[in-house]
Write a sequence for this structure.
């Protein structure tokens, strides 16, 4: 690999990186512009997250928010 090919590869890599960053920014911008008209997409749904806590709350003497 000579210097010209290495320079072309380096510049191409930088330009592809800038393109990916710009495309991600455009996607975020468009998402923020139209977010009020569509519902959020939920890819994974875990039913146990809607049930609240996993354990009962414990009353400790150091907790001033709970009465003794």
């Amino acid at each position: 690999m000579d210097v010209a090919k290495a320079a072309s590869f380096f510049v191409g890599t930088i330009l592809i990186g800038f393109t990916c960053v710009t495309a991600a920014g455009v996607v975020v911008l468009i998402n923020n512009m139209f977010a009020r008209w569509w519902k959020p997409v939920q890819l994974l749904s875990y039913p146990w997250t809607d049930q609240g806590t996993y354990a009962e709350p414990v009353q400790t003497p150091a907790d001033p928010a709970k009465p003794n």
In short: The mean pLDDT is 78. The chain is about 45% helix and 0% strand. Residues 6 and 12 are 10 Å apart (CA to CA).
